[in-house]
Request: fold
Amino acid sequence: VFFVLRKKQSHVSFLHVYHHVNMVVTTWTFLRFIKVQQGAICGALNALIHSIMYSYYFLSALGPHMQKYLWWKKYLTRLQIIQFILGIIYGISLFIYDCEFPRLFTIYMIFDVLLFLYLFLIFYKKTYKDKET
Reply:
């Protein structure tokens, strides 16, 4: 919504729209039907990454004079990629150790996070790697 209001149509990508729509549906499903503590670790890690991300956005919104302090944007994207890798490992461990977490939802989450990882790797390559060459 903020990208559209600020006329930043280039920021409205499949990755962005899919991520936000998917998170609403997945979180609602989890909180409505599953409600086990195994999801808390993923939520805490996601909150940490988003706190760092929105700190970056806040600083960048202060104006062009802040650009010299915002050299760490690509490392933020790397942190998000690491978050997805950790999420996949965690999901696989939930599946292997057969805890109270529903197996079908575990499989869904593993494939969903794999898709996020794939989309973020494409974004990272397009944004950072292609500009280096």
